[in-house]
Amino acid sequence: MRLESVSVRYTRGGPRVLDDITLDLASGTVTAVVGGNGSGKSTLLKVAAGLRRPSSGSVRGRPDRIGYVPERLPANMRLSARSYLLHMGRVQGLRTADAARRGGELLDRLGIEGDVDAPISTLSKGNAQKVALAQAMLGGPRLLILDEPWSGLDARTHQVLVDCLAEWRAAGVVVLLTEHRPGTVAASADAVHRLHRGRLTEEAMGEAAPEGFAITLGVPMVEDRSRVMEALRALPGVRSVGENERRRICLEVGADRSDAVLAEVLRQGHSVFEVRPGAGGHR
């Protein structure tokens, strides 16, 4: 699949949101596009998915089975997670029974919490994101387009998504995703490109993110501090746990899991005093 000299303007004569972008997407690869909010990442994905026509340029070789995770589901979604996946499965050509079975399997794998028969609008951001991911995977897509797929996910589901990316790569699926934190995609992507002022540049994989992070925490006063440290040590991506001279807990975390670990320690009620790139001792 190839995006050839793609440019997009929102208004005639207005500035280019995307400016002469050429991007090759091979089967069995994961391509990540990083950039700040408003950089045009979502517009690029919509062009790749065929949801928006470029102002100039073309998209060639787009597979016919596409899974798409938007930046967010509609805020007033009245369908339940179960009903939505059943509907989307039938839209994608699955029989009713197959859509129901496959939807349930995906929700179980992604670890959805809450009532799957309640309106999606009542779910948390993370659980709504799990529903969006499930609908994209329903029909066995050959092209997966994911707009900041890790947004709102807990540590467990963060790792499930990493595992899914490896499986899709092995199955020859074309994966194009966006993220605003390079460290999140460093271990999963075959190529990382940065979008800035409408232009796309490839980043050297070795420079996309540090190998790990040193995270210093303050934890609530508890009787069994060793149990707290053991729980932190069990988090996916945590390489080591120790204490500094101020009795603050210090973690060494892999770059590919850093965001998920931070989200989880905050959820557990810990305070984050410092995050530094690279491995080594703590201050």
UniProtKB/TrEMBL annotation:
SMART domains in alphabetical order: AAA
Family per similarity comment: Belongs to the ABC transporter superfamily.
Keyword ATP-binding: yes
Domain of life: Bacteria
Annotated ranges, domain ABC transporter: 1-222
GO MF entries: ATP binding
Protein name: ABC transporter ATP-binding protein
SUPFAM superfamilies per record: P-loop containing nucleoside triphosphate hydrolases (SSF52540)
Keyword ATP-binding listed: yes
Keywords (A to Z) from UniProt: ATP-binding, Nucleotide-binding, Transport
